Amino acid sequence: MEYQIKSGQPEKQRHACIVVGIYDSRKMSRSAELLDAASNGYISAIVRRGDIEGKFNQSLILHNVPGLLSDRILLIGCGKEREIDEIQYRKIIRKATECLNDIGAMEAASYLTELPIKGRNLAWKVQEAVISSEQTLYRFDQLKSQKETDRRPLRKLILMANNRGELTQGEIALEKGIAISAGMSLTKDLGNMPANICTPEYLAKQAQVLAKSFSAMTCKILEEEHMRELGMGALLSVTAGSQSKAKLIQLEYKGSDKKKKPIVLVGKGITFDTGGNSLKPPAGMIGMKFDMCGGATVLGVLKAAALLKLPLNIVGIVPACENMPGSTATRPDDIVTSMSGKTIEILNTDAEGRLILADALTYAERFEPDAVIDIATLTGACVVALGYEASGLMSNHNPLANELLNASQIAFDRTWQLPLWDSYHDVLKSNFADMANVGNMSAPAAGTIVAGCFLSKFTKKYHWAHLDIAGVACQWSGDKKGASGRPVPLLVQFLLNRSE
Ligand code: BES
Ligand code: MN
Ligand code: ZN
């Protein structure tokens, strides 16, 4: 969709539709009042009559309002004026976008950017309006033979600034919103694609396609032979049961001086997680096509960074493979040697994410990174701990963790820090190898942290943070099943902060 920033009074606009808010109970927003005055009380009369009270999720479309130049006025119920928070704002935008897409106006000017949200300025509201509208209109219908087509889809949304002085910040926010949305949509497309199509090879191909579209981006794919030479025994142990060949995707975005140390993003790219020989039960296996959402996030973030031409060097690494059972697959009790030289006793082949990440994180050392952030749908325990609200954040460097917490607050893409205290490491002790890949399976405790502790053994040489996105990357089941595009907003905000 096309977006634009404009300023000006609503009664002076000539558009297919003007969108304004009504607060609970029957209270007009500033723009609604201006429209009301110009139409000689037409709108307030309708509101007084009770056709719309301003409760959230209400909407009312008015045609040919006297005294106005626009064809339609869309009133959106916003709930209590003082209670509009970030979540409510997103829902209001979603509702408005759905209505606009339905009524066939095709083009509209929205004054919802004037709604008051504590601590958020116009730039934030513009950026969020773009992201929420794009996510509302997002569909994954590549694999449907009958596509639902909108009769007259919304093509252009004009977001209104209060005055001319706000236009510049509005335009910058628009660009950010568009770039973040584009990144999120890529992440969602890759996540939603099923594992029979979205194989490691497919992911590698998509990374190459992405790199081709930006002159500042290059892509290199490492094959299994190369991984073997590098000694990536942990990664290779995960792909051992699969017919598909593992790929290590390496994307490089150069937006800054060669000498500037890069930020390395490492994303878990398990294209399907059956659990391997420690097979998952059927219900727990559904949705495991989403186990590459960390990798998809890396691609999405790099796309957004390249669109925004961020003055940073960023490396994206995605170890991509499939976790399958079978006679060639790794067995519980097997011991493998990781690229770091450390040996790992694999007690559960379903704890595969940390194995591929261990080698990818060791590989990251060669970029002499300024910071490394890995993103992974790593543990079901993270869903238990934080639900679908926040990703789990763990780090070996508190300033880096704080940067991510700060970015998460700004982007309202929430994350919550968990500790990696020494005592949590104890359960990973092995009688036969340097470490085990899981703690005590019959009495699991702090599963997300234990997984973080495992990864931390491979990240001693740099500043590192880990995002467990098992709860936020997608809805794993139900009718809203699908990838969310998170935490692209968080990571792009982190990079934006680093660019300043
Ligand atoms: N991909 C899963 C984690 C997961 C589970 C994400 C459910 C989202 C929803 C991961 O590979 C896994 O299987 N983890 C195990 C670890 C356990 C064996 C220590 C888990 O969470 O059960
Ligand atoms: Mn698993
Ligand atoms: Zn997994």
TrEMBL record:
Question: What are the alphabetically sorted keywords of the record?
Answer: Aminopeptidase, Cytoplasm, Hydrolase, Manganese, Metal-binding, Protease
Question: Known catalysed reaction(s)?
Answer: Release of an N-terminal amino acid, preferentially leucine, but not glutamic or aspartic acids; Release of an N-terminal amino acid, Xaa-|-Yaa-, in which Xaa is preferably Leu, but may be other amino acids including Pro although not Arg or Lys, and Yaa may be Pro. Amino acid amides and methyl esters are also readily hydrolyzed, but rates on arylamides are exceedingly low
Catalytic residues, chain numbering: K280, R354
* Primary localization: cytoplasm
Q: Where is the Cytosol aminopeptidase domain?
A: 348-355
Q: Name one GO cellular component term.
A: cytoplasm
Q: Point out the signal peptide segment.
A: none
Metal-binding in keyword set: yes
Q: Which of the seven top EC classes does this enzyme belong to? A: hydrolase
The family database entries (InterPro entries) matched by this protein are listed as: Leucine_aapep/pepB, Macro_dom-like, Peptidase_M17_C, Peptidase_M17_leu_NH2_pept, Peptidase_M17_N
Q: Where in the cell is it found?
A: Cytoplasm
Cofactor dependence = Mn(2+)
NCBIfam families hit by this protein: PRK00913.1-4 (NF002074)
Q: Which family does it belong to?
A: Belongs to the peptidase M17 family.
HAMAP family from the UniProt entry: Cytosol_peptidase_M17
Official protein name in the record: Probable cytosol aminopeptidase
